[in-house]
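Structure, all two chains, one model.
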Amino acid sequence: MDALTGWWDDYLWGAVVVGQVFVCSLILMIVFGLLGAMAKISNSRTAQKIASAYTVIFRGTPEILVILLLYFGSAITLTAIAQIFNPEIRFVDVPPFWAGTIAISLIVGSYATETFRGAFLGVSPGSIEAARALGMSNLQTFIYVRIPEMWRLALPPFGNHMLSLIKDTALISIIGLNETMFVAKQAITVTGKPFTMYIVVGAIYLGFSTVVTLAVMGLEKFGERTTAGAK
Amino acid sequence: MTFDIDLIVESLPLMLMGIGITLKLLIVSGLLGLMLAVCLLLMRISGKWYLSFPAQVYIYIFRGTPILVQIFIIYYGLPQFEAVRDSILWPILREPMGCAIVALTLNTAAYVSEILRGGVLGVSKGVLEAGSALGMSARQKFIYLTAPIATRLALPAYSNDVISLLKSTALASTITIADMTGIARTIVADTYAPYEIFISLAIVYIIFTFGIQKLFGAIERYLGRYTEREG
């Protein structure tokens, strides 16, 4: 344990980076998931096709490949675009934080698409008809009836998606994000204690997963507070 | 920026040379993981706390940490201890391939045992009561009633886990294994053509995913052949 002296604050900052990636990718993941789900349940054939292609591609490709493609690919594309305006630019550096965040939220968003789609379809038609009968507009029905009923159905699988996001942040270290895995790598070159250093990383991730799991359990309880009597 | 078709034609055969290693990782750790998962399942449903508690801790740890961290702990971390280097397991843990298989096996077992448990919990009480009424012992009920029904119930979720395992095999490339992803990363490092190489490799993985889905669909239909009439 002596080997860890002096590395704790590096690990702390690494954990902060993991938290930042998690929050940003969570927001993006919800956006991608909702867009995908809405496209899938829409009447437009094109939107349905695009959404299916999205889920097939991102559910069938290894995460690391998506991250590498987005990171190196966007660097090349942005360099090419930048050279149009200023031919002297040799290379545009893409921040691994955003390349990685977008990559993992696209991946997990493809799973969330299916979850949200199922949850939207699970809202009982009776509730929607009741809302109509009360004279609610489409928007009102969406906000007051569909969303509250739908998120309760989506929550258990959605909790798993959040866990995937947390665990996928570790992969972003491959493209050089300075999160906990990266800290461990540096610490190992100095101390020569790989087991100790990676166990700390594991413990940090286990902590994150535990917090997310507990939060989801709490939200599930909260969601059921009005329906508990109905069962 | 151009999309170089010739480069794909040139490098696709090179990447496909890694298919054997990818398949070896998938099949060996898939089968070993399934065996370990069944052991974990039996421990969890044994009803004895000294068996079910360790299984629960195991599942909690392996599902709560990223697979990349697990691979690194096993490959880089374990050799820190002299006891590991002297043990009979050293010939396996010395090789990256052995480490990758051990890590993937341990990881997938945790997920699969939860899937199997879901299947076991899904077996209806009536069937088990009927078994008791016929004078079956607990062991007979498990072998002739619970196991076949639970297998059928768990199969759709299990096929998803096999797909995740396929995607996880790509992480073996981080510990110097030349699987399809490993070879692709080498080619990209040489040619700096991430779009061509990674996209064509992604298509190969998507085809694999599709194949796994079809295979499990066929197995599901075969196992469900008695239930079709009930529709």
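The two ends of chain B are 54 Å apart (CA to CA).
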